[in-house]
Design brief:
The protein is 83% helix and 0% strand. It contains 13 helices and no strands. Helix 4 (59-66) crosses helix 6, helix 6 (89-112) packs antiparallel against helix 7 (116-161) and helix 8 runs antiparallel to helix 9 (180-193). Residues 22-30 have low confidence and may be disordered. Its main location: membrane.
């Protein structure tokens, strides 16, 4: 047992020294991996960059093991998350390799020592840590877009009613906004500048965003274009529907919060309050508990 732990510790130290030496020596990567490492480098953190550099050599192997279908799903999820921290599919694979090695290596050590819970947590870290980051980024991005979209549509309707075409108004308003929704619009506008039709560009915008309101906006816009309805009225109707939906969702969240608050109150606050009241009653009564107990 002790020999196995020593071997695992030695392997861990060797891997750490190799990683540090690789980082300090600026070892050259193959050209394709070097390009993959440069993509998004300005948006990632120092820790993320170090992890990417350590795992980039193993990224092609991880991608082959994942298979093309899963890689396509991961790419779509990263797009929906807005490429947080410059994350790409190659960086995802590199981090998956590093986190997996750390998680499973640490889990093996904990299993040898009989610490099953810590081993399970380390395995979960290796498998799901990067997935948790993507999931959180998708939720945060969706919330930011849905918060911005109704006001954006109101401003866009005003600009269109002032006499600009929809394409010009979209470009003008997008310049005044910051955040994920403005970034998505700039991507769609750039695609239209390159010859992509407006319908295809907005279909791509809908696919890149896991948001019901974005899907509603694109569908209503395309339907209004097909039916020939005024674009200003369409934009105002979409904004009103989104605000109505937000109000309904807020009421649903409030309704779901009431039972949760009731459970917390009845489970923790009521027993605690009763305990304090009983303790205060006995302490304030001046009863000698020694005489009560017969001592």
């Amino acid at each position: 047992m002790g020999l196995l732990i020593a071997l695992l510790a030695g392997a861990s130290v060797t891997g750490l020294c190799y990683g540090v030496a690789l980082w300090r020596s600026e070892a050259r990567l193959p050209p394709d991996l070097a390009v993959a490492l440069e993509v998004g480098a300005t948006r990632t953190t120092a820790v993320g960059s170090a992890v990417d550099r350590l795992g980039m050599r193993w990224a092609p192997l991880v991608l082959r093991l994942m298979g093309p279908r899963r890689v396509a799903r991961i790419r779509a999820r990263i797009d929906r998350a807005g490429n947080p921290g410059g994350l790409t599919v190659d960086r995802y694979a590199a981090r998956r390799a590093v986190y997996g090695a750390l998680g499973f290596g640490g889990a093996l050590v904990m299993l040898v020592e009989g610490r099953l819970l810590i081993a399970a947590l380390l395995v979960a870290f290796g498998l799901f840590w990067i997935e948790v980051g993507i999931w959180a980024a998708v939720r945060e991005r969706r919330t930011a877009i849905e918060r911005t979209l109704p006001d954006f549509l109101d401003v866009l309707a005003v600009v269109v009613s002032a006499g600009l075409s929809f394409r010009q108004a979209l470009d003008r308003v997008a310049e005044r906004y910051e955040g994920p929704w403005a970034d998505e619009l700039r991507i769609a506008l750039r695609q239209m500048d390159m010859g992509v039709s407006r319908r295809d560009a907005f279909d791509g915008l809908r696919r890149r965003n896991d948001s019901e309101q974005v899907a509603q906006f694109v569908s209503a816009l395309q339907q209004g274009e097909e039916l020939g309805s005024p674009i200003v009225d369409t934009l105002m109707d979409i904004a009103a529907d989104m605000r109505r939906t937000d109000a309904q969702n807020a009421r649903r969240r409030a309704a779901r919060a009431v039972p949760k608050a009731t459970v917390v109150i009845t489970t923790f606050m009521v027993p605690g309050t009763l305990a304090l009241m009983i303790a205060g009653f006995f302490l304030g009564s001046g009863v000698d508990f020694g005489t009560v107990s017969g001592r």
